[in-house]
Amino acid sequence: MDLGIKGKKAIVCASSKGLGKACAEFLAADGVDLVLIARGAEALEKTAAEIRSRYPVKVTAIAGDIATPAGREAVLKACPEPDILINNAGGPPPGDFRDWSREDWIKALDANMLTPIELIKATVDGMMARKWGRIVNITSAAVKAPIDTLGLSNGARAGLTGFVAGLSRKTIANGVTINNLLPGPFVTDRIRSNSAGEAKAKGVPVDDLIAQRSKEHPAGRFGDPAEFGAACAFLCSQHAGYITGQNLLLDGGAFRGTLS
Predict the structure, then answer these.
(1) Looking at residue 114, what DSSP letter applies?
(2) Torsion sign (Cα): 58, 140, 123, 64
(3) 137-164: string of b/e by CB count within 10 Å (b at 16+)?
């Protein structure tokens, strides 16, 4: 399927690895020029070089933290008028809410709620003026089914979800959609870091714990980041102009509710 986005410009946050990288790759495959940002310069440059070698698109790599004013300024300077914005940031660590300070909460809100809102604020009016735009926020399946040890993530991402629910109904008349992609367990570094504490407590290798969990999953496996990237690219396509304000769950059937 031709997604109809060749020649568009996209900002993809936290895109050196995992789900962000997969989104960038699928957009590039459909001819979208990219501005990528991630904190790890080495991994980011490797990803940028891989995409340039495979697809005839322009790729600008910016090493920085999108959750900081400096990181956002650098990205918007490189791409002040994006057609596509993929908001993404590493989730806060798991733990017990009794141990979290106000500073921990502010850091989580900055990364997973306020930064996406700042980037939307900086770009959405231009998209509406041009009568076309796609904004996709990578959040978490925990928005639908909270995970007790991920309280920082649950709270921050739920806040972003509520914000998007209102704004997305105001932008679509001008051709701009805003949606959220909610990943369940995918084979990324994030699943290893989230599983490390439990594996240590149980005295088992983290890889063994992940393997056992994947077998117990309804799909009998965890997700491939490429599956996530393909879904993201479709939401950014010309064919998705009637989809807005939605929370698309990609979890292989793990959510047990009747209405997802």
Answers:
(1) I
(2) negative
(3) bbbbbbbbbbeebbbbbbbbbbbbbebb
pLDDT of residue 190: 74
Give pLDDT, residue 65.
Answer: 96
CA-CA distance, 156 to 122, in Å (whole number)? 20
β-pair type (176-183, 247-250): parallel
- 137-158, pLDDT tens digit by residue? 999 999 998 888 889 999 999 9
- Give the integer Cα–Cα distance in Å for 86 and 14: 9
Residue 52 CA to residue 32 CA, distance in Å, equals 12
Low-confidence ranges of the chain (pLDDT < 50): none
Q: Which DSSP letter does residue 111 get?
A: I
pTM for the model: 0.93
**Host H or E run for residue 13:** strand 9-13
- The identity of residue 147, as a single letter, is I
Residue 244 exposure: Cα atoms within 13 Å on the Cβ side = 23
